[in-house]
Amino acid sequence: MFRTIFDLSSNVILLQKYCAERGFLKSPQRISDIRNTAMEKIRSLFIKYWSSDVGLDGKTAIVTGANTGIGKATAKDLAKRGARVILACRDIVKAELAVHDITREIKGANVEARKLDLADNKSICEFAENIYNTEKVLHLLINNAGVAACPYSTTVDGYEMQLGVNHLGHFFLTFLLLDLLKHSAPSRVINVSSSAHAMGRINFEDLHSRREYHPIKAYTQSKLANILFTRELSKKTEGLGVTAYAVHPGVVNTELVRHVKSPLEVMWKKFSYFLKTPEEGAYTVLYCSLTPVSELVSGGYYSDCAQSATARNGRDDGTALKLWAVSCHLLGIRWN
After folding, report:
1. How confident is the model at residue 33 (pLDDT cuts 50, 70, 90)?
2. How far is CA 272 from CA 221, 254, 267, 303, in A?
3. Category of 98 on φ-ψ map: left (φ > 0), alpha (ψ -120 to 50) or beta
4. Do both 120 and 225 map to the same domain?
5. Alpha-carbon distance 259 to 149, whole Å?
6. Which Pfam families has this protein been placed in (predicted)?
């Protein structure tokens, strides 16, 4: 995609230069307007607009990592539709600021910040207990929070950070909130994954990268785990009124890539105009939240507001079942 964008944008710049040199364009503002229009046309080839008029009055949603990026955009949209939205975030100060932003823009928005550190099982338990003490229903659990390509570190409980936050933390959270989801049926679990899962492999021999750590390999492993978790979860909840979907939001300009270094960092900044905004990145999450269940496939993988095929490794039921068992063992839970 980046190569195509580079070729198209380079052609726009060359055309602009050609016209300017020959006096076709005297006004600098006119040159800028033409360039911006051309760039927007190019951008529209890769990013499609989506909308829905579905309302969510009386519904309750939890969005993890909702203080910024896709999570915040998702929370804002759900609140605009009338849902009660709980922003589940590690940094409660940033979460409160996000609540302030949303309530300032949406009159009467029912949004609230709660502390949730997915790198700490105790924090996950406390969050879930708090939800059961304050909420009677839960219709949407959107597992959005994540870390990407970070230096090696471990969670409070000793898991490699990317696997711990991106997979195990959300696996545990979903387990703890499942009774409320079943009670509130029909309800949905949406796991934000990535097309990067195609490069992933579940390394059961060194799941926490203690022998060797590569940030990209650890990230792709965690994103593959999201796909496999969704696939197995859909089987476990079949007939219970709870459906599950995995989502690739696209290449989005968010803080998630803060650990990515050169030369990828340079490329990211150079083509940032062509990346999705957080609002555009939220489209497929919202699509899976709002589209009638009869039009979706539980356990499916969605990209650009449509069902998409996962890579072969994302369709391995044997690996999915094994990962489920290993995850339960690591967390010390029984979930059959």
Report:
1. low
2. 26, 10, 8, 20
3. alpha
4. yes
5. 6
6. adh_short
Identity of the amino acid at 276 = K
Determine which helix (DSSP H) or strand (DSSP E) holds 245, and give its type and residue range.
strand 242-248
Domain extent, residue 28, equals: 2-46
What is the domain count for the chain?
2
**246 φ/ψ angles, rounded to the nearest 5 degrees:** -105, 140
Residue 51 lies in a domain: no
Q: Could you tell me the pTM of the whole model? A: 0.85
Nearest residue to 190 (alpha-carbon basis) of 333, 41, 66: 66
Classify strands 306-308 and 301-303 as parallel, antiparallel or unpaired.
antiparallel
Residues 155 and 282 in one domain: yes
Q: How many CA atoms lie within 13 A of 50 on its CB side?
A: 23
Strand order in 60-64's β-sheet?
Answer: 110-115, 84-89, 60-64, 140-143, 187-192, 242-248, 301-303, 306-308
- Which single residue is written with the structure tokens 């909702």? 66
* Residues annotated as catalytic (active site), given as ranges: 219
- Residue 77 and residue 23 share a domain: no
Q: In terms of domains, do 130 and 9 share one?
A: no
Q: Strand pairing partners for 245?
A: 190
- pLDDT tops 80 at residue 279: yes
pLDDT at position 237: 98
Half-sphere exposure of 154 (CA within 13 A, CB side): 8
244 and 323: one domain?
Answer: yes
Q: Does residue 54 sit within a domain?
A: no
Residues 179 and 93 in one domain: yes
Check residue 48 and give its pLDDT: 74
